[in-house]
Amino acid sequence: MRSKIAGIGYYVPKNVYTNFDLMKMMDTSDEWIQERTGIVERRYAHTTEETTATMGVEAAKIAIERAGITPQDIDFIVFATLSPDYYFPGCGVLLQRAMKMKEIGALDVRNQCSGFVYALSVADQFIKYKNILVVGSEKHSFGLDFSTRGRNVSVIFGDGAGAVVLQPTEDPNRGILSTHLHSDGESAEILAMYNPGTHANHWSSTELATFKKDAKMGEYFMSHEMIDNCQNFPTMDGPAVFKKAVVKFPEVIMEALKTNNYTPADIKMLIPHQANLRISQFVQQKLGLRDDQVYNNIQKYGNTTAASIPIALCEVYEAGKIKEGDLVCLAAFGSGFTWASALLRW
Fold first, then answer.
1. Mean predicted lDDT score pLDDT of the chain
2. Exposure string (b/e) for 144-165, b if CB count within 10 Å is 16 or more?
């Protein structure tokens, strides 16, 4: 028994922010952003009317309809995001409530850029259920530093959501063939958002000294000092991430292909996580793939982390670039570090 994608959908906010819009907020340029990332524009969710969960709902509605079922038919939810509506509970239950589903299981996955592939792998293990909803959704714009200080990170990310419905199949020519998950936490702090958190040990002795000796414990979780020092924004060593990604991306793709006795030439479509256009181009060259074998949409959406693969996969499907029986490879690399791939027959 395999699991197949029976329905797919995506949602992106209406608000388009170009590189020129960001130039009004920080010292950057369209040329600088495009040269380093390939990004031209991205979407930002409405500040108060859209959340990670509500965008996930919109993508899920389309996926469920295309699967020919109703929200009441969903038996299990796997929701991947790094930008949940609340510190807790997770977005899975918020989606379940919003869509008035049955009292089903809802599991949240926190694997950042590789979150959707991890979530897909988890759902694949639960295929004893008839209908599993897998969602990747992100509202990055709420937690970015839109000043010159934070430009290296803030110009990269965008908002959006994608979703698929998995169903069991006995068709040997369809479904998920294998998934491959990896991690290496040795350099976890290279790409991270430290606060709010329960650590305290990531601050320097000087930063810790800003707290009074009689400070309440809660002030170590979030304080005015942290906000004043801009410690509540994500941080990234871009060159270090790039260096690791261009090694692990090809490795995990080849792992999926070799496991199933295929070569890069057999791939109809490779859909990489939209981290950076330069990374995707490097991977394409490394594997010897043609332009029509690799799909990129980072130019218009930026990096939507857990949402990037399902959004791209849905666009490929809607454009008719894949048909039943085609070999499709999904691959991602991101914070943690974690990386993953999935090989499937559409």
1. 93
2. bbbeeebbebbbbbbbbbbbbb
* Statement to judge: residues 20 and 119 lie in one domain: yes
Residues 207 and 251 in one domain: no
Residues 228, 149 within the same domain:
no
Pairwise CA distance, residues 73 & 130, whole Å = 8
Per-residue pLDDT tens over the stretch 139-160: 999 999 999 999 999 999 999 9
- Examine the pLDDT at 166 and tell me if it is beyond 60: yes
Phi/psi region, residue 15 (left: phi>0; alpha: psi -120 to 50; beta: rest), is beta
Rama region for 143: left / alpha / beta (φ>0; ψ in -120 to 50; rest): alpha
Residue 240: CB atoms within 10 Å: 13
Residue 265 domain boundaries: 175-188+236-345
Model pLDDT for residues 203-257, shown as the tens digit of each residue: 556 656 665 555 666 667 777 777 777 778 888 898 999 999 999 999 999 999 9
Token look-up 């029976």 returns 6
Instruction: Report the alpha-carbon distance of residue 21 to residue 30 in Å, rounded.
Output: 9
> How many folded domains does the chain comprise?
3
The H-assigned helical ranges of 67-131 are 91-98, 115-125
Taking the whole predicted model, whether its pTM rises above 0.90 is answered as: yes
Do 275 and 287 belong to one domain? Answer: yes
Looking at residue 311, which CATH number applies to its domain? 3.40.47.10
Please tell me the distance from the alpha carbon of residue 64 to that of residue 67, in angstroms, as a whole number: 5
> Mind telling me the catalytic residues?
113, 273, 303
Q: What is the pLDDT of residue 233?
A: 87
